[in-house]
Amino acid sequence: MSDSKVDDAKVEPTTFSDNGKLSPIDDNGSDGDTIIEGSEGVSKHEYDTLRHVGDRFPWTAWLIVIVEFAERWSYYGTTNILNNYIRAPLPRGSVNGAVFFAEDRAGGIAGALGRGQTVSFAIRTFNTFFVYITPFLGAIVADTMWGRYKTILFFSVVCLLGHVILVGSASPSSLAKTDTAMGLLIFAILVMAIGAGSIKSNVSPMIAEQYTGKLRKKTLGSGETVVVSPAVTIQSVYLWFYAAINLGASGAISASFLARDHGYWIAWLVPTGIFVLVPGVLLAGRKQYVVTPPRGSVLLETFRVVGFALRPAWSFNPAKTLRNIRAPNFWDPAKPSTYASGSIPGKITWDDEFVGEVARTCNACAVFLFFPFYWLCYSQIDGNLSTTAAGMTLNGSPNDLIQNLNPICIIIMVPIFDFLIYPFLRRRGINFTPIKRIYAGFIVAGISMAYAAALQSYLNNLSPCHDNAPSACETEIGTPNPAPVNVWIVAGPYILVGVSEIFASITSLEYAFTKAPTRMKSVVMAFSQFPIAVSAAINLALTPVNAEVHFLWLYTSFAVVAWVVGTIFFVTFRNLDRREAELNAIGKGDRAGFADERSSTSITEK
Question: Where is the region Disordered (predicted)?
Answer without folding.
Answer: 1-38
